[in-house]
Amino acid sequence: TLLDLDALREAIREVEAALVVIDPLMAFLPGQVDSHRDQDVRRVLAPLAALAAETAATVLVVRHLSKASVGNPLYRGGGSIGIIGAARAGMVVAKDPEDPTGERRVLAVVKCNLAAPPPSLAYRLAADGPVRVEWLGETALTADALLSSTIGGEERTALAEAEDFLREVLSDGPVEANAVLKDARGAGISEKTLRRAKERLGVEAIRSGFGSGGRWCWRLPFTIDGQETPKMVTLKV
Questions:
Q1: How far is the C-alpha of 68 from the C-alpha of 80, rounded, in Å?
Q2: Phi/psi class of residue 169: alpha, beta or left (left: φ > 0; alpha: ψ in -120 to 50)?
Q3: What is the Cα–Cα distance from 49 to 62, expressed in whole angstroms?
Q4: 84-97: pLDDT as tens digits
């Protein structure tokens, strides 16, 4: 697992590796780590990033897409948004929706903190002999365009996506209601759908603070889908 970084460090130095591929990430997370909790994944990925800086090796983490088919591409990766949050760059690979043959794929940037985002690239796998990647040049298709189409023949309803969004955003405890609404708009979720999802999940609205400094926050119920969720403890003094 990713807790055993000493062995990974030794392997990198032994072969002078320039690239380390973790495929898929979820298979190498320790059993006690909840891949949907931001704190958990960041606690694991921070030492991995430090190891990359120490050894000068590039670390490529692979994860699958969630079943949601609309919204901000940043929310489409499986697990916590903290995974893409901890990365310097993020890319997505999907079928070209404009290709009738179904052979062409597109590599598009979702996030890039290193430089200006590069253009998307089209490619296909050529099988005339050993399989190889045949690059087909730049394409105008963006990550948003690729992920707005149905992927793998499966499509989630807007309400189901909103429920997934709330589970993710509130996974670490109460969040100010206005911040949740703002993030939902950025993810392409309407306020009406978000509030319906809030009711279905039993999300609680609680008041934090007093007077003009008080604010309304949302939090998950103490249990959801049979799992315990973070609680907010109030101390009386």
A1: 14
A2: alpha
A3: 15
A4: 888 889 999 998 98
